[in-house]
């Protein structure tokens, strides 16, 4: 049984699955919208959310939302 298995296989081997999800993520970021199957969208969602969360952390200048001074 597949209890506690996080990887959605999508009927592909590991390399093909990684490439597929990577390409979907890039398309989502570039175009803000993609047309795909529900299974692929559900597999992509945690990856895209993780990427966006890391970008938000990277761009914050100070903790607790204090903001940062503009350059110049």
From TrEMBL:
Pfam (any one): Ribosomal_L17
Keywords in alphabetical order: Ribonucleoprotein, Ribosomal protein
GO biological process entries: translation
Example of a GO cellular component annotation carried by this entry: cytosolic large ribosomal subunit
Single Gene Ontology MF annotation: structural constituent of ribosome
Spans traversing the lipid bilayer: none
Family classification: Belongs to the bacterial ribosomal protein bL17 family.
Ribosomal protein as UniProt keyword: yes
Gene3D superfamilies named in the record: Ribosomal protein L17
Superkingdom of this protein's organism: Bacteria
Protein name per the record: 50S ribosomal protein L17
InterPro entries attached to this UniProt entry: Ribosomal_bL17, Ribosomal_bL17_sf
């Amino acid at each position: 049984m597949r209890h506690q298995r996080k990887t959605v296989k999508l009927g592909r081997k590991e390399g093909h699955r990684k490439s597929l999800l990577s390409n979907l993520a890039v398309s989502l970021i570039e175009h803000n919208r993609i047309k795909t199957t529900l299974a692929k969208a559900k597999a992509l969602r945690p990856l895209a959310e993780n990427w966006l969360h890391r970008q938000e952390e990277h761009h914050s200048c100070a903790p607790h939302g204090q903001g940062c001074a503009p350059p110049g």
